[in-house]
Amino acid sequence: MKQLDLFAGIGGFSLAAKWFGIETTQFVEIDPYCQQVLTKNFPGIPIHDDITTYSPKKGEFDVITAGFPCFTEDTLVL
Asked: Which of 24, 45, 68, 78 can pair with 14 through a Cys bridge, CB separation 3.0 to 4.6 Å?
């Protein structure tokens, strides 16, 4: 099975997917630091930095995961 990891962060979903035999074949992540971590931990997997310009082909992936942004304390509204 092939996975697309959207808003990938540092690749938590992809690591879990790997444990279950699912191959991540593309990332979409805008944060430069996270891109560096992904490049180190998942070498050779393309990283797209803009979800608005990325257009996967229909049927290219079996699984699509998407991470939610992490909020710091100064951005939380209680």
From this structure: 24
Residues annotated as catalytic (active site), given as ranges = 70
Helix (H) or strand (E) holding 3: strand 2-6
Residue 28, φ and ψ in degrees, nearest 5: -125, 115
| pTM of this structure | 0.85
- The secondary structure of residue 12, as a DSSP letter, is H
Question: Tell me: the pLDDT tens digits for 38-75?
Answer: 999 999 999 999 999 999 999 999 999 999 876 666 66
Q: Count the neighbouring beta carbons within 10 Å of the beta carbon of residue 13.
A: 21
User: Do residues 26 and 57 make contact, with C-beta atoms less than 8 angstroms apart?
Assistant: no
Decide if 63 contacts 2 (C-beta within 8 A).
yes
